[in-house]
UniProtKB/TrEMBL annotation:
Lineage: Bacteria, Bacillati, Cyanobacteriota, Cyanophyceae, Leptolyngbyales
Ranges annotated as spanning the membrane: none
Protein's recorded name: Alcohol dehydrogenase catalytic domain-containing protein
Protein family: Belongs to the zinc-containing alcohol dehydrogenase family.
Lineage top rank: taxon: Bacteria
Amino acid sequence: MKAQVFRGVKQLKYEEIPVPDIADDEVLVQVQVVGLCQSDIKKILYPLYEPPRIFGHETAGTIAAVGSAVKNWQVGQRVVVLHHIPCMHCAYCLNENYSMCDTYKNITTTAGFTPSGGGFAEYVKVPGHIVRHGGLIEIPQHITFEQASFVEPTNCCLKAVKKAQIAPGQTVLITGAGPIGLMFIMLVKYFGARAIATDLIQSRIDKALSVGAEAAFDARDADLPAKIQQLTNGMGVDVTLLAVPSEKAFSQALDCTRKGGKILFFAEFPDEVEIPINPNVLYRREIDLIGSYSSSYRLQALSADIVFNKRIDVDALVSDRYPLKDLAAAVEKAVSPTPETFKILIYPEAASH
C-alpha cells in the first residue's frame, strides 16, 4: 500500500509499504479520508518525534478485515476510527483526565513503524484495546466519510467548551477563525452562547460571521477591548478561547475577559515561548486560566451525535482536498494559507478508485 512516511523534519516520503498484519483482536480499516490537523503539521515540521512514523488521526474509512476474535464488526462497515482510548481505571482516568492516561497516550492506531495514528496511508490497523472499548463508531448512511472525519476534532473542541463551562447566555471570545476557531463558533452557538471572533485575515473574519459569530474583528484593531466592552454591557466576555498560539492574543484575552471570567488555552504554543504575567491580574480580577488538550472519552457519543445529526455544519469548514501523494503540498498550504484556506482533507488513492 502507499503511505506518507515521516523520515525526518520536513521530510515526507510517499512510499510503498506492507499492509499491516492484524492480530485476532484487531481490525484493518481502508482509509477513505483523513483530516489534516495542526498537531500533524507540528509533528512534521519540528523535531518532536523520532522517524520513521506515519501520522494522521482524523480518520474515516471502511473495515477491510477483522481478526477472528473480533465481535460486532464486519468487513464493509463504514467507521470513524478513534486513535486513542483511555484505560478507564488509572488515577488520571478516575479523575476524568483521560488525555493524561498512559494507555491513551501510548496505544494508538498504526499503518506501520512506531504507532503514530497512521491515517496518512491506504490502510490503518486498529489495536484490540481500541476495538474493544469504543474506538470504532459506525457511520450512518446519510453521513459522508468527509463529515464523519470531523468526529475527533469536534470532540477536542467540545472538551474545551465543556471545560470552560460555557453556558447559554454567555459571551465567548474566540481568537483565530481558522478551522478550529470556526468549529468553536459553531459549538458555542449550539450551546446557547454568543460568539465573538478575531483573526488577521479578512476572509476568515467574514467566514466567522457566516458560520454564526455575532461579531468578528481584525485582531490588530486597537479598539478591540472597547468594542468588546460595548457588546457586553461594559463587562467583557465570560470566556476567551485561545485558538491561536499568540502572545498578543493572550494579552488581548486579559483585556477583554470580564472579572471572574475564564481564559482557555487550546492552541499549543512553541516550547520556547514564555508569557510574562502579573499574578495580581489573576488574583484581583479572579481570572481562571485553563488548558485543554486532546479529546475526552466521556464526550465521544455527544461528538458523534453533533456531527451525525448535523447540529453544526462541518461541510462549511472544508476548503481544500488533496490526494495522499500531495500531503507535503497540503502541509505547505496549511502553514501559508490563502485567504480561502480553512480545513484540508486528504484522500488515499485506493479510496478514489
